[in-house]
Design goal:
about 375 residues; alpha/beta; Arc Repressor Mutant, subunit A; 2 domains; 9-stranded mixed sheet; 13 helices; about 35% helix; binds iron/sulfur cluster
Length: about 375
């Protein structure tokens, strides 16, 4: 549960991409025409929160594609954040980067502006898969981008990968994992491809143009991922996330799973503080117009009841290696029996008053909270 001593994280949504990947359902636009207004609106939004959120120990610039911002916009944005907010001197400061945006100039700018962690959106080291995903880079460029970031002095670089692509085989996926491991990244995120309605892949699925991988194969790829990466010493600390060492766990993302406070700025960004959650309008033009006309960009708000907070704690806790405190279940009359059954099925273990999901438990993490409804 959240307590007042937890320092919030700051998320900034940069809603621009050069082109739209056919699987992506994050909010972003491909036209830069609103960029100036968005930047001015973001400055306005920042000033609205600076008293309520005086100090952060993480900043995560995501999107969209923050790495495609021109140097002037990027500098103005970042300096504005550091000027308005107090960001602790030991903060984790991450930027999401696409490999095709990495240039020596950009890399130097990231460093000058205080970024100390890079999340590199590689997705695959197989050029055919990258073509299918309509990514703008090939495998060689991704390796080159990683190398140049490392040579420039970034030692905390994470690589994002995607598995469960149509037709993918275990050996093919392992080849991608091995090429990633050869680079010795600090962090690996391995997400299963999900196809959402409303995306180009969603339409192709509905028209039979994409044949999804069998569910069983998806599970097999997940299990081979955890086995392969933990075998190489990586710490599997969340369903989709692995850190080379415990200290390299992503501090910012950990706040989401631990229900710690965070402030999200930009269109579609979500915020959370003391059981209250609110989110911004999902349109860069409406976001900018509202703020520049002296109105709020908030589009929705909820205050979680104790029951909702309990279920959310389970939904997030079953996704992490840290698991759940047994005390969380004190008011639940059936919890003891349910947890015993989960232990017997090998989905969780009990250790030092904690309920810890196993890799098999991670596979069904989303369904476990339903047992406690
Ligand atoms: S670059 Fe990232 S945010 Fe942009 S469309 Fe592709 S996956 Fe989505």
């Amino acid at each position: 549960m959240m307590n007042d001593s937890q320092m919030p994280g700051l998320y900034v949504h940069v809603p621009f991409c050069k082109s739209k990947c056919p699987y992506c359902d994050f909010y972003s636009v491909t036209s830069p025409s609103h960029m100036d207004k968005w930047l001015a609106a973001l400055e306005r939004e920042t000033s609205l929160y600076k008293d309520r959120f005086p100090l952060f120990d993480s900043l995560y610039m995501g999107g969209g594609t923050p790495s495609l911002l021109d140097d002037q916009t990027f500098t103005s944005l970042t300096k504005g954040l550091f000027r308005q907010f107090t960001i602790s001197s030991d903060a984790e400061v991450t930027i999401e980067c696409n490999p095709d945006d990495v240039t020596p100039n950009k890399t130097a700018l990231f460093q000058d502006l205080g970024f100390n962690r890079i999340s590199l959106g590689v997705q695959s080291f197989d050029d055919v898969e990258l073509g299918f995903l309509k990514r703008r880079h090939n495998a060689g460029q991704a390796e080159k981008a990683f190398d140049s970031l490392r040579r420039a002095g970034f030692d905390n670089i994470g690589i994002d990968l995607m598995y469960g692509l149509p037709g993918q085989t275990k050996p093919g996926w392992l080849r991608t994992l091995d090429r990633a491991l050869d680079l010795e990244p600090a962090h690996l995120s391995c997400y299963e491809l999900t196809i959402s309605t409303g995306t180009p892949f969603g339409r192709m699925r509905d028209e039979g143009e994409i044949v999804l991988l069998e569910e069983e194969m998806g599970r097999a790829l997940f299990l081979v991922t955890t086995e392969h990466l933990t075998g190489r010493g990586y710490h599997h600390y969340e369903v989709s996330n692995f850190a080379r060492e415990k200290k390299l766990v992503c501090r910012h993302n950990r706040k989401y799973w631990n229900r710690e406070p965070y402030l999200g700025l930009g269109p579609s960004a979500h915020s959370f503080l003391k059981e209250e959650r609110w989110w911004n309008v999902k349109s860069v033009s409406r976001y900018s117009d509202r703020l520049l006309n002296g109105r709020s960009a908030v589009d929705g708000y909820e205050k979680l009841s104790p029951d909702q907070a309990f279920l959310e704690s389970l939904a997030l806790g079953f996704r992490t290696k840290e698991g759940l405190d047994e005390t969380l279940f004190h008011n639940h009359s059936q919890a003891h029996e349910i947890i015993n059954e989960l232990c017997q099925s090998g989905l969780v273990t009990r250790e030092n008053n904690k309920i810890l999901p196993t890799p098999k438990g991670f596979l069904v993490a989303d369904s476990l909270p339903l047992l406690f409804c």
